[in-house]
Amino acid sequence: MILNFFKIAANLKKISRQGWVDKLSLKNPESVADHSYLMAVIGMVISDLGNYNSEKIIKMILLHDLAESKIGDYTPKQLSKEKKNELENNAFNEIIENLPNSIKLQYLQIWQEYQQNNSIESKLVHQIDKLEMALQAKIYSEDGHSPEKLECFFESAKTDITNSKLKELFTKIIEDKQ
Asked: For residue 160, what is the DSSP state?
């Protein structure tokens, strides 16, 4: 039962981040697993520097896109927020269904907290999600992709990032002239 969970999670390596496909027509964009990995690194550093609950934040990051291993990655233009939440909640429950109760309930609680976005940790993780997206957009920009096509990613991050440390990092990403 744990092995099946690992196999499902491994599927995230094959799921492309749909926004990059739609906006940049990339043939090999970052995967959801790539995105989650960099988010985990960012979350670890930010939470350690800010004395947040690093373990909870890292777990939340690793779980936040897990449902996409079953349903794929959808952009806001493809599905309503309500429909996406319904699909993700159903998929997440299926994914953790056979895990031992001792961790299944913990993961479900962390997942629900992320979905509700009403705790310090969940708010931080949502903003780290946007910061990672902005950093990846900057990387694609440096690789020669159209600044005009990437602007919507930067604007989305600028709007949603409110944490002062993350705002500072976002500004450095935008201003970096490499």
From this structure: H
Nearest to 126 by CA among 137, 116, 136, 135: 116
Hey, where are the domains in the chain? 2-175
* Residue 114 near residue 63 (C-beta atoms within 8 A): yes
Q: How is residue 32 written in tokens?
A: 């959801």
Describe the crossing of helices 81-96 and 101-116 by its angle, rounded to 10 degrees: 170
pTM of the entire predicted model: 0.95
Question: What's the CA gap between 66 and 74, in Å, rounded?
Answer: 13
φ/ψ of 31, rounded to 5, equals: -90, 170
Residue 166 to residues 31, 39, 131, 138, 173: CA-CA distances in angstroms?
A: 23, 12, 7, 15, 10
Digit-by-digit pLDDT tens for the chain (178 residues) are 899 999 999 999 999 999 999 999 988 999 999 999 999 999 999 999 999 999 999 999 999 999 999 999 998 889 998 999 999 999 999 999 999 999 999 999 999 999 999 999 999 999 999 999 999 999 999 999 998 999 999 999 999 999 999 999 999 999 986 5
- The CATH class of the 2-175 domain is mainly alpha
Exposure string of 87-106, with b = 16+ CB inside 10 Å and e = fewer, is: bbeebbeebbeebeeeebee
- What six digits make up the tokens of 154? 């930067």
